[in-house]
Amino acid sequence: MAYTWKVATKVLFGAGKLKELHKEALPGKKALVVISNGKSTRLNGSLATLEGELKLAGVDHVLFDKIEANPLEPTVQAGVEFGREHGVDFVIGLGGGSVMDSAKAIAAMIPQKGGRVWDYMGTGTGEHRPFTATPLPTVAITTSAGTGSEVDGGSVITSPVTHRSGRALRLRSHPTLRRRRRQDLRRVVSIRSDYPTPSDSRGSGCGARSVPLTVGARPNPRQRWGFAPAPIYCSC
Question: Domain span at residue 131?
């Protein structure tokens, strides 16, 4: 099965879609590729495939491979500083929900002047600081059937100082944030086949996040700190 669905967001879904990334109009010339601190994207070949696609597209990149499960604010802040240091102009998140959350936050924070990630968090102990610069575009390449992070603008980040974790802490965002998303059906089938119960249950998060953004007649007040709809989204 493969299809293209375009509402506020363009949906690209089907087997082998990652290998078509070079055909898309990517939003910059130097990408910050964000992955986890594990081995999965290297072992399953998705990182090598992505690097090949970027080369075909004539896009340079640097790799940030520090994101842990349930990402910590200092790690995300390190990604922000790494991206600034290397002068990237867009961010690619390759992985599951933690990587997606981190990539969105990093892309939003790189252009901001002053402050840390936690200063811009819109709930909890965050300082609710508004963005004053347009966030960088992002590309989200999901490798999990269970995440829904590529759909919305939320970023769940843990502060080791306040010990706030597992909360839907949403970043305030500039309304012109742009994101692209891509998901390979073969990766979904593989995960669902190997781990049917966790994948089936976690997959409900995709619907919980995507349906309100698609069919809602007006913005949800609870999502007022979220990001703007993406022009391209590859759903699981």
Answer: 9-216+223-233
